[in-house]
Amino acid sequence: MSPFDAMPQLSNTKSLAQHNLHLMPWDGLYRAAILLGLAVTLYVSFRWALFQPLLRSAEEHHWTRFIVHPSILWMLMGVLMLVFRTLLWFRYRTPESAVYAEAPPLTVVIPAYNEGPMVAQSIDSVAAAFYPHGRLEIFVVDDGSRDDTWEHIEAAARRHPGLVTTLRFEKNRGKRAALEAGFRHARGDIVVTIDSDSVIERGTLLAMAGPFRDPKVGAVAGKVTVYNRGDGLIPRMLKVRYALSFDYLRAVQSTYGTVYCCPGALAGYRASVVRAVLDDWVQQRFFGVACTYGEDRSMTNYILAQGYDTVYQRAAVVHTVVPHSYMKLCKMFLRWDRSYIREEIRFAGIVWKRPLTARAIAVADAFVTNLRYPISWAALALLVAIIVWHPATLLRFLCAIGIMACLNMLYYLRSERSWDFVYGIFYSYYSAFALFWVFPYAVLTVRAKSWLTR
């Protein structure tokens, strides 16, 4: 039995209410707990004077006021933004899936490179999806693999005759080129991209097709969760981190039709819109350097620039393999952060084309979010100096991380109702002490082209 066979599957008739958290038992209690957690976090922070060392530093050394006062102001803005995001999250409603008998023609594109047997599981999961095979096409591209990936692709194609189309590059050309080939050959009205190290649940394709009944929707982001949770501490921590990233942040962004990144692990696109921007996407440059990674957020930006909405579909679930070692984790985040920097700069020009409400929310969100980098790093440098002078301050810092981690876990528990939340607390400390260097290094190397895994 393959790992896919043992994986929980979505029922074909699973109720939409089961994907809408506000309709689930005890959800009112979770909402109240989250709001209470926000209030307690604010109270504890000031009652215990966790930031008192920074204020004392401003009094003793006048020059530190240029760091302390902006930091406090930013923290207040951050709290207000968190409250606002939380209210939007409560408003999110899972879009209805497409009706089986009315499902539109759909093409699934799977780019693969040195994936080995995992690509076969990816193909098999798509072939097993609850979707009319007469309207489904699976297009698999081997991007010049140097292992046995092609053999597994061919074997999967033989298992699903008439459903799977294959293409093999003689040499590695990059994921963007592999996706381009799939986009150009796709016959479906909707194109769904799935990473070759990922498997989907049975109801995912119908769920992805559902939001496209709204002609304003140009792209749909699916829910990404971890496939290899049992491979160690890092995958277990990432399971929590992914839940907060996808079921919280993207659900929030979906309420105003501006999901910033429809992820490569599971994204759906209106084919006509993709064809309109495909040439520009393929030829994209950043400061004169060809763009290789970050193809998912790049395509999302191009679609937003065309005036379409991008939304999140909670009912469309993909299970993806995540790094299990520190070095692989750093490489993944470094690639993501470089893409974030590049595409955030582009989004600053695109956001003004959004409808007024979406524009106002996106601008405020981007301002508060991106302000954290210069302010938090300046405050962190000052905090390190204070810890040297007053070592007991380190305990306050650790308490502050723990308090925010516990608050985040309330959000996770509302989405997942799982004891895995404890790994989210571990991740907060792990990220603070082991991954703090990744974003600054991404800024310094933002023009790098290497995929880091190819």
Explain how this protein is built:
The chain is α/β, with parallel strands linked by helices and 454 residues long. It has 2 domains: 18-92 and 358-444; 100-324, Alpha-Beta Complex (Spore Coat Polysaccharide Biosynthesis Protein SpsA, Chain A), CATH 3.90.550.10. The protein is 55% helix and 13% strand. The protein contains 16 helices and 10 strands. The chain has helices at residues 3-6, 27-47, 52-60, 65-91, 118-127, 149-159, 175-185, 204-209, 233-254, 271-282, 295-305, 326-350, 356-389, 393-416, 421-434, 438-444; strands at 106-112, 136-142, 164-168, 190-194, 198-200, 217-226, 266-270, 285-286, 289-290, 309-320. The strands form 2 sheets. Strands 3-2-1-4-7-6-10-5 form an 8-stranded mixed sheet, with helices on both faces. Strands 8-9 form a two-stranded antiparallel sheet. Helix 7 (175-185) packs antiparallel against helix 10 (271-282). The longest helix has 34 residues, at 356-389. It starts with a helix and ends in a 10-residue tail after the last helix. Residues 1-13 have low confidence and may be disordered.
